[in-house]
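hiii, so i know i said id send this last week but things got crazy w the move. better late than never?? heres the sequnce for the chain we talked about at the cafe, plus the structure i predicted for it. fair warning i was half asleep when i ran it
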Amino acid sequence: MFSRPSERQFEQTVRAYSADLYRYAYWLCHDRFVAEDLVQQTFERAWKHWRDLHDMACVKSWLITILRREHARLYQRMRLDTVDDDPETLDLPSCVQADSQLELEQMVEALPLAYREPLLLQTLGGYSCTEIAAMLGTSVGAVMTRLTRARHALRAHLAALEQTRIPK
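okay and structure toks below
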């Protein structure tokens, strides 16, 4: 027979794993405030199901799983605002040059199809990671990974372009 975890054990668990969960959440989202919210939501969800936990030995992996799912839910709820205006009619910042639209299109086109497809579905189509995963026949995690890699590749390319444009 197993014993159900107590409130005291939950408090000890919060103290023991808060820092680890925060580090993992920050690694996922790279935003201090979002990471704090994710940890809070993780412990809130864990508290709701605390009495259902049967094995205290696997509490850390259980909490990490909850945190990962809360992070995924964050992006499922997020909807990007899309604009149907012609790019030439938009008021762009002065730092954006006329050829930047073409450069951006070329950068996106240079991405591997596995990265380009989910990126365009999310940014242009406004689809959630779950919807994209269903369309592409893959997992939500794979979609999130591909989106992250696509953004990193675009940032790296933009940084390289900025380096070449800096006047000496």
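btw The chain is about 70% helix and 0% strand. thought thatd interest u
miss u guys!!
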